[in-house]
Design goal:
There is one protein chain. By secondary structure, this protein is an alpha+beta fold. 54% of the residues lie in helices and 15% in strands. The chain has a 3-stranded antiparallel β-sheet, with no helix packed on it. The longest helix is centred in the middle third of the chain and has 19 residues. The protein starts with a helix and ends with a strand. The chain binds zinc ion (ZN). The site of zinc ion (ZN) has 7 residues, from loops.
């Protein structure tokens, strides 16, 4: 990216975190990040805004660039699936007896196409490391259907 693109994109970070990089800091950051395309840099900034409590340093930005790359790779490896329309979950309905009153719940089952595993890396690795009851709640979280 050009220095102008860098300054413009970086100002979004500064505004959001209400902090200003010094000229010297910006010069060093640009030296480290100039090989990165402006599109990637902007995505990394968005990633930082969503994930970093504090204004990111060069290492945070480089890490964000890697994370964005992983997310993009996951999205592009998604399989086309007619059963779940590619989202990895299939809704189904079940009547549940709620103290004599039947309520229809909508449930989500994980589709066997495997797209669910390719979905957003952060939530998926969490699921895999959570205990069974939590997985159950996560997968079968009921949603009330309007009568
Ligand atoms: Zn599917």
């Amino acid at each position: 990216m050009t220095n102008g693109e860098f300054i413009e994109a970086t100002s979004r970070l500064e505004k959001y975190y209400e902090k200003e990089f010094s000229i010297e800091q910006q010069r060093i950051m640009f030296e480290e990040l100039r090989e990165v395309s402006v599109e990637k840099y902007k995505k990394a900034i968005t990633y930082c805004i969503r994930n970093n409590k504090f204004i990111p340093k060069v290492s945070d930005i480089l890490n964000a660039i890697n994370e964005v790359k992983k997310i993009v790779a996951k999205e592009t490896t998604r399989i086309e699936c007619k059963k779940c329309k590619g989202v990895g979950y299939v809704p189904y309905y079940k009547k549940i007896d709620n103290g004599g009153k039947e309520i229809i719940y909508q449930f989500f089952a994980v589709c066997d196409c495997g797209n669910e595993k390719r979905y957003d890396g952060t939530t998926i690795s969490d699921i895999e490391h959570k205990s069974k009851p939590f997985c159950f709640l996560w997968y079968f979280l009921p949603f009330f259907l309007p009568a």
